């Protein structure tokens, strides 16, 4: 598909010395996407944001706008990256797909056959696919985490192995907010001939070959002037500025002893996710919440999967598995942490009846606290990434992001 790229640059309507409202380009016929993107910047509902969308291997939307920090003294640029929280899970899913394609393990293999210590407390039959689909019951762990010790994967993985599961594995799924990354990292480490853990494996086998500004563990010497700083929220904001966050979750994550509190406040204790936006965490390479990426880089990675994965050596069998999705938990889709239905699958989330984020069920990707979303739809040939540095207080379908996605799909329909 050949596209005509039209520069899209609007300056502030008041004529003040402010950065451009938005910059970048859209393909002919996709101008409404730029207007939708611009709306959240003008309204102030997004401090800064970026969106890149590819279709059949061509970029049709590549936009950025607003400020790169709450200081409002520097514009979000075309090469700006940011902490992307749970969008990192999709990166971990990609790494697992590449590893599985190389025969390091299969999704149907038992984790304990790779990592014998994992079998403790009745976890011996948990498969790699179940663990990556957040069904292992290891959302909350008793091991006390601290931001300055998140890089000690050996100690953390030992704690995960001896952890009694939060529910019978396979019965339910639940947001493994941090642990998903360490579980995947240990599985890869034990089977990779070079003994690499997730950060090295991802950066060397996926990020670097595709030349994408996406990192699990920020490299030394990276120009930190390119990093957008996060404007987070406090726990009080979930009540004062409540939007679509389920009320049961809002309460439970503030009540010590609940599964939600134990999952979401270890290592943070009622500080809010913005507290993770620091150099120490950027460099750790935490595989469920610590990715650093640009929207352009995320879209490029997902485009590799939208086009079948061959550029990364992903096999047709693995691609078919990702498109099909992991079987639902035995007792339904209700997330035991988020208190709402969610379909986790092999490190990604998939569309389901309550959240059809793409046009076909072949899609897979991840959303993040604060509203960011990235995914691909192989059947539709779409890869999509929208990220922001101003965290919203909803679950999924952040209105700032959804406005852009809806505009894109409306334009795509009109291309036929």
Give a verbal description of the structure:
A seven-stranded antiparallel β-sheet has the order 1-2-4-3-12-11-10, with helices on both faces. A three-stranded antiparallel β-sheet has the order 5-7-6. It is α+β, with helices and mostly antiparallel strands and 416 residues long. It contains 14 helices and twelve strands. The two termini are 12 Å apart. Residues 11-19 have low confidence and may be disordered. Helix 1 runs antiparallel to helix 14 and helix 2 packs parallel to helix 6.
Q: Uncertain runs with pLDDT below 50, 5 residues or more?
A: 11-19
Structural class per helix/strand content? Answer: alpha+beta
User: Spatial order of the strands in the main sheet?
Assistant: 1-2-4-3-12-11-10
What radius of gyration results from the CA coordinates? 20 Å
pLDDT averaged residue by residue:
91
**Quaternary state of the chains:** single chain
Q: Outline, from the CA principal axes?
A: globular
Q: In angstroms, what separates the terminal alpha carbons?
A: 12 Å
The percentage of residues in β strands lies in: 5-15%
Number of helices: 14
Spell the H/E element sequence: EEHEEEHHHHHHEHHHHEHHEEEEEH
Strand tally: 12
Largest sheet, in brief, is: 7 strands, antiparallel
Helix content: 25-40%
Secondary structure layout:
Layout: E1 5-7, E2 22-27, H1 31-43, E3 48-55, E4 58-66, E5 82-83, H2 87-101, H3 111-114, H4 128-132, H5 153-161, H6 179-191, H7 198-207, E6 214-216, H8 235-240, H9 247-252, H10 259-264, H11 279-284, E7 291-293, H12 295-306, H13 316-324, E8 344-345, E9 348-349, E10 364-367, E11 373-377, E12 382-388, H14 399-414
Antiparallel strand pairs: 1-2, 2-4, 3-4, 3-12, 5-7, 6-7, 8-9, 10-11, 11-12
Helix pairs in contact: 1-14, 2-6, 2-7, 5-6
């Amino acid at each position: 598909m050949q596209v005509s790229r039209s520069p899209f640059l609007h300056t502030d309507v008041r004529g003040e010395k402010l950065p451009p409202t938005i910059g970048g380009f859209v393909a002919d016929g996709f101008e409404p996407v730029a207007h939708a993107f611009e709306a959240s910047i003008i309204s102030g509902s997004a401090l800064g944001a970026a969106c890149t969308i590819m279709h059949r291997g061509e970029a049709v939307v590549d936009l950025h706008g607003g400020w790169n920090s709450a200081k409002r003294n520097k514009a979000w640029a075309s090469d700006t990256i940011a902490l992307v929280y749970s969008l990192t899970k999709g990166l971990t899913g990609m790494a697992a797909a590449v590893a599985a394609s190389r025969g390091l393990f299969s999704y149907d293999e038992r984790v304990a056959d790779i990592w014998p210590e994992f079998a403790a407390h009745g976890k011996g039959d948990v498969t790699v696919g179940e663990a990556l689909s957040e069904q292992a019951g290891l959302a909350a762990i008793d091991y006390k985490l601290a931001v300055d010790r998140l890089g000690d994967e050996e100690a953390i993985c030992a704690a995960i192995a001896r952890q009694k599961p939060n529910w019978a594995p396979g019965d339910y799924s639940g947001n493994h907010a941090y642990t998903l990354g360490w579980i995947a990292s240990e599985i890869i480490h034990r089977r990779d001939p070079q003994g690499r853990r997730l950060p090295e494996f991802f950066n060397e086998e996926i990020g670097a070959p595709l030349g994408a500004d996406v990192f699990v563990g920020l490299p030394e010497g990276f120009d930190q002037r390119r990093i957008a700083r996060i404007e987070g929220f406090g726990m009080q904001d979930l009540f004062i500025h409540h939007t679509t966050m389920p009320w049961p979750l809002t309460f439970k994550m503030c009540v010590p002893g609940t599964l939600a509190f134990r999952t979401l406040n270890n290592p943070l204790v009622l500080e809010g996710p913005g507290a993770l936006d620091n150099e120490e965490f950027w460099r750790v390479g935490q595989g469920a919440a610590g990715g650093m990426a640009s929207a352009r880089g995320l879209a490029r990675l997902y485009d590799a999967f939208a086009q079948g994965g061959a550029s990364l050596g992903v096999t047709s069998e693995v691609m078919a598995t990702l498109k099909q999705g992991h079987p639902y938990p035995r007792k339904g889709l209700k997330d035991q942490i988020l208190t709402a239905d969610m379909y986790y699958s092999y490190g990604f989330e998939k569309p389901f009846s309550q959240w059809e984020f793409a046009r076909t069920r072949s899609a897979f990707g991840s959303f993040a606290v604060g509203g960011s979303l990235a995914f691909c739809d192989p059947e539709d040939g779409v890869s999509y990434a929208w990220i922001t540095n101003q965290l919203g207080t909803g679950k999924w379908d952040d209105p700032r992001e959804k406005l852009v996605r809806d505009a894109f799909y409306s334009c795509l329909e009109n291309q036929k």
